[in-house]
Amino acid sequence: MKKLSQFALLLPLLLSGCTLLQPLLPPSSGNPYGANDYAVGEAEPYPQEVKLGKQRLENFIRRANPKQQALLAENPYVAVQAYELVAGEVWPLLRRLAGGRVRTKYYSQDFENQSAYPVKFLLLFDQRTQRLIRPDGVLAFDTPQRGAVGAFAGVNAIYAGTGWW
Description:
This protein is an alpha+beta fold. It contains five helices and seven strands; from the N terminus they run H-H-E-H-H-E-H-E-E-E-E-E.
C-alpha cells in the first residue's frame, strides 16, 4: 500500500516532465496549421490595431486596378498587417525560430540576431463587409508577396501587407 501511494505521488512529476516524455511523443510537424500555412500563432488584437487594419484594408481595396479587383472578387478574404514585432518579444516564437520549426524566407543560423527577426501581426478581414472574419489575429514570420493568396491559420486570403498595392 505504501508503494502505491509513493507511485501516486511520483506519477504527476513523471507526466509533467516534458523532456522525459519527448522520446515517447511522435515528432512534431513544426506548424500546427500545416506545412503551407504562414501562421505560427494567434493573438487578440487591440482596438487601435483593428482600426488601423480597417484603414489599410480600405486603402488596399481603393487602389486596386481591374486585374486586382478581379482577384478580390474571386477571394473575399484579405490579410492586413496591423503591427510588426520582433521574435524576442514573445519567447515561444523565438524558441520556434531557434529550433528551425517555422517557415521563413531569410532564416539563418545567426543566433545573435534571431531575437530581432520580424514577426508580422495580421488581421483577417472579409473585404465585402470590412469586418474581421475571426476574433484573433495571426502571427507570421513569412508572408507571400503583396497581392498573392496565402493560407493564414487555415484561411486562404489575399495578403495586403500594409495596404498598398
